[in-house]
Amino acid sequence: MAAPWVGRALPLKEDARLVAGRGRFLDDLAPGRLLHVAMLRSPHAHARIVAIDAAAAAALPGVAAVLTGTEAAAGSRPIRPLIPTAVPVNDWCLAVDRARFVGEPVAAVAAVDRATAEDALDLIRVTWEALPAAVDAQAGARGEGPLLYPELGTNVLWHDTLTYGDVDGAFARADGVLEERFEFSRYASTPLETFGAIAEWDAGTAGYTFWTNDQRPGLTLAILAESLGVPQARIRLACPDIGGGFGNKRRPAYLLVCALLARRTGRPVKFVEDRRESLSALMQAAGGVMDLALAYRADGTLLALSVRDVTDEGKNLVSPAQHNLIKLGNIANGYRIPAVRYEAWSVLTNTCPAGANRGIGKPFMCFAIERAMALLARRLAVDPAELRLRNYVTSAEMPYTTPPGAAYDSGDYPATLRAALERFEYARRRREQVSARAAGRLLGIGIATSVEPAGTNLASYEIITGRRAASGSAEAAMVRIEPDGQVRAALGDPPSGQGYETVVAQIVADELGVRPDQVDVARGFDSATTPWLYLSGNYSNKFSVTDTGAVVGAARRVRDKLLRLAAHRLEADVADLELRDGAVAVRGVPTRRLAFRELARTAYADVLGLPPGEEPGLEARHAYQNPLAKPMDAARRVPSQLVFANAAHCCLVEVDPGTGGVKILAYAVVHDCGRELNPLIVEGMVHGSTAHGIGAALLEAFRYDERGQLLTSTFMDYLKPTALDVPAIDVGRLEHPSPYTPLGAKGVGEGGAIPAPAAVANAVEDALNSYGVTVRTLPITPEQVWRWLDSRQFNNVGSNFSESPQ
Amino acid sequence: MRLTVNGVVVEREIEPRRSLSDFLREDLALTGTHVGCEHGVCGACTVLLDGWSARACLLLAVQCDGAAVTTIEGLTPAEGLSPLQEAFRACHGLQCGFCTPGMIVLAHELLARNPAPSADEIREALAANLCMCTGYVAIVRAVARAAVARA
Ligand code: FES
Ligand code: FES
Fold first, then answer.
1. DSSP readout, B44-73?
2. Bridge-based pairing state of the strands A583-586 and A589-595
3. What is the CA radius of gyration of chain A?
């Protein structure tokens, strides 16, 4: 067989259209007679909606319909949460009698264009009764503060303590305990294309068609059908090119609003968020506070970990406690920690709903653990790299199951760190740091390492609900040879920048003996033509874990059929046949061959030429579930995520004591995502993912004031890294294939975003070592640095200045 | 109002409040120009206005009366891709591709004024636009590669 296509750094098929501006994104679609939607949003963090008067808005020329929350509640059912609350609460697509965060939609207008729709919003009169806002999740965990849902009687959605192993014994035996509190700000990966949807109602068939850049069509289809009271068979949902996702791109409520307006007006309606709507109301990574205690022996061996984690969910009723579960699943990072205790709080506040964001929960978990490792190294006067090397799970121990049930499948964590140190020239840089410091420069080196799981096992929700609903990790695909012999494939996972059209073509090319440019992979997703499952979608790093299996499985079915057809027609034995260059040929006899086109003619047209009993057509579907997903066991252990990649980040920063600015001077990554299916894509994922982590470390934060007003709702005050903030990240790799994925690949989308915040924070703390600074929260803004330095300078000179106002 | 878009003279009557980006996308169906923020920060809407890069979301279409506007469509050959576009593809200087038209317009302007930019100069120029996917590393590579290809 020729060298496989999988593994090659092939330039991307989809890039050819995207560089020419020929992508087709949601807002590029415009069905005839289209109406445009604008939404009226709450200016209050928490308020009762006493009355809405929309008469003037409805009368404005160009306005086709106005939808209020009350009307939405009359025309649809509440959105069913993934994890139900103890007492059912109704979460409709528009706020009905109460708004619970700034930016929550309370009414929507459909008009001939967006400007007219926005004009109409100005004419809607809402009578508000402002209520005190709950903005402090810590207070919520203590049972204090105003309630978002009085019927729940609490803002705490989940509180539990999970203990694995002899935690108390380990703490009692330990030589020392490191205790620290860390805080994580809310931030988001903010895909450049905002979220949006088009809905169309067909009165003739009583069905809906949606176009959307929703990342998780399987789940969304279920919600749409249930909330609209329409059978799934009469809902079609399609995704075009998606301009970035990172977990943020989901809001079934907006699709429901569009559906109700489409039905009301009989015309297709489109809603596309503007940036302020996106930043204030779509999805933010949950912030929170984590108290961590690490028990260790004098030699630095970790004995036990105890974490108390208060997660600020905002108004997240859809997937509460998801961040908690993912943190629990990754609590041990790459370390051998025999005993673990995790006390979780998932708390509602009057802020934007928290939700999936590149790495969901893991960046915070990794930040806490890797900050603790840095502090412990300093306490024990051990090199931080050495401390990690003493504690890693080794490859000899794999497969290794962590106390809460995560199964580390393969990899050599010490080797990853060593390779990163070498790449970074750690020893040389440490020496340079000493001389730079002597010259008065504030140089710091930070290390952070992480595991990076792929694929979510929804059975982990059983930890919270006590019963299993959805579970496992799976995806579906289709491969077909068209009547003209051309190969086509489709996947239930709509990409948002991961190059699936290329990778899927590489995989199919290997299976069928064609070139990737001979395989047409469907753009996006279309429930009418793409095979899909409830679990289908672009989330949780799952391509390597499930999607590859679906594609391989479908391609093999087609290959087997091609072989059977060819054997019949060539009167040869299947074992003597091979697929190459778009044909099936008798091995060693190149003249005895049948091109796919000829076999397709038999399969689709000349069906009497088929072998007896063979079904016409050349198409196969396959759905694949990864075997690592398991139900929760009696000890409440469950693999919440499946296959583990790993990475080591080394970072050199310089702090400018004058401005408080932090500049990253060098950044090296070594990662191991198993077999790399297309190294060009993999490297890009590492770069981009790391940049997200750097943004979280130095720039990005959604800041709310004490009344729940969002202070950072544009890109002028919510700062994203530019080309001047992200260094030329140097990427090296190891490849330890996973034994548990069809092609040996692992996830790679999140691996930069998980350790980068910790790596940068560790470097800044190292730079400010002489000031005795401990980094407990992010982002490390110039103002923050300046405050640290300022207070220290005052202290150092024994100043009488007091920090408190006189 | 009358302006030249990608070499073609366009005459239209338009509402004074229509932005150039809406005008290009909605009225002329030139959807290669994207909109990422509509407040002048992200640069997804970058076009050339009389040869200089400009934010189409911050311009009113009427302000462009008499001007020559070039969009990504105008920088794309009828057949195949430009060397700059080829370089973006070869280096995978994109992922989702949403920022890409704006980045390419920006890089086009840079290379027109500075045919052999250093990596720092490239970074400085590209810092005008945001990319949420690539971390910029491969974009910088792509622009450097295009500069070498043109030299
Ligand atoms: S859309 Fe114009 S700068 Fe962002
Ligand atoms: S490639 Fe997605 S924003 Fe740049």
1. TTEEEETTEEEETTTSBGGGGTT-EEE-GG
2. antiparallel
3. 28
Q: Across the interface, which of B76, B99, B119 has its CB nearest the CB of A192?
A: B99
Give the mean pLDDT of A70-75: 98
Helix or strand holding residue A730 (H, E): strand A730-734
Residues 6+ apart with CB under 8 A from A223: A79, A80, A252
B67 with B120, same domain? no
Integer Rg of chain B from CA: 15
Tens of pLDDT, residue by residue, chain B (151 residues): 999 999 999 999 999 999 999 999 999 999 999 999 999 999 999 999 999 999 999 999 999 999 999 999 999 999 999 999 999 999 999 999 999 999 999 999 999 999 999 999 999 999 999 999 999 999 999 999 999 988 7
Tokens of residue A313, six digits: 């969910």
B107 lies in the same domain as B71: no
**Can you tell me whether residue A344 is helix, strand or coil?**
strand
Q: Do B134 and A722 touch (CB under 8 A)?
A: no
The residues, any chain, with a CB within 8 Å of residue A591's CB and separated by 6 or more, are none
Give me the number of domains chain A comprises.
3
* Cα torsion through A733, A734, A738, A743, rounded to 10: 60
Size of interface A-B (CB pairs under 8 A): 170
Distance CA A536, CA A626 (A): 13
Number of structural domains chain B divides into: 2
Asked whether A57 and A39 are in contact (CB, 8 A), the reply is no
Query: What range does the domain containing A294 cover?
Result: 287-459+631-800
Same domain for B103 and B42?
no
CB B60 within 8 Å of CB B14 = no
Query: Ligand 2, from B34, B35, B92, B132: best to mutate by most atoms within 8 Å of Cβ?
Result: B132
Q: Do residues A621 and A636 share a domain? A: no
Based on the domain organization, do B7 and B70 belong to the same domain? yes
From B35, B98, B104, B137, mutation site for ligand 2 pocket: most ligand atoms within 8 A of C-beta:
B98
CA of residue A207 relative to chain centroid, distance:
31
- Indicate the pairing of strand A641-655 with strand A442-456: antiparallel
Reading the block at residue B50, the tokens are 């009389």
* Model confidence pTM above 0.95: yes
Distances (CA, A) of A551 to A176, A511, B6: 51, 10, 42
What's A397's domain CATH number? 3.30.365.10
> CA A183, CA A224: separation in Å to the nearest integer?
36
